[in-house]
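INFO worker-7 received task bundle
INFO bundle size: 2
INFO processing item 0
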Amino acid sequence: MGATLTIRIDDALERELKQYAAATHRPKGDIVREALRRQLALARFRAVREEVMPLAEKSGMLTDEDVFKAIS
């Protein structure tokens, strides 16, 4: 399966996670893994965006809408 990671969370976060897991009928570990994947994907996206923004601005693309129009 993979590595095991142990983390400490405060009581309020534990209650919220437990309630969400019960409401969605999912294991807490699945929820945490999904949240971590999303956070890491967002970090990668931000890093790429930061790298290409100067190039986009030089091309006249100043907003996300400009980029969307260019690739649509």
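INFO item 0 finished
INFO processing item 1
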Amino acid sequence: MNRRLGSEVLEKAMGPFITGPLASDPDLASALATLPRLTALEKRYGSLTLGVLLHKVLRRRTAIETEAYSFRGGMATLIDTLARSDGVHFHSQRSVTELIPRGNAWTIHATSPQGEHSVRAKQVVLCVPADVAASLLEPVDDDLAKLLSGIEYAPISVVHTGFPEQAFSRPLNGAGFLVPRGEGGAVTGTRT
């Protein structure tokens, strides 16, 4: 991204956006993955600067269609719908300890506050962090486990705070702020 934006723009403007809301490292992030609209402008017009200027002059809203979506009730809608589906047996508060392939199926061992459990399934879907998936799959597929272990996560903590409206003498008309990583603070940004 340094090639496209230059070091100062990357560090002061785009870096905080990539670090904060996208939870990514600007030095490792792919421009296409993190800034698809800007890279689409560059591809369409041959230059990022020219693309942005022409976009402003022509008053166009977007360079590409967005591909992000969600469910009306949030991502929990997917889990709730699957849990109510025929043939799906949903068990909460269980921690999987072992996956064992047996023929065309799997045996899954888990623990819960009620004790140890085993279940047999035709398919298994892992919806866990990559390091957890790696530890479960290491005995089954060492190469896949190594690939999963190589996935890097940005170190980020999200803290939510709430204040009564009466605590402020005037309305909070803003969206928050982002902090460049060179500023040395522990906070990457806030949102109101």
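INFO item 1 finished
INFO post-check item 1: The radius of gyration is 23 Å.
INFO post-check item 1: Helices lie at 2-5, 7-19, 31-34, 36-45, 48-58, 76-84, 130-137, 142-149.
INFO worker-7 idle
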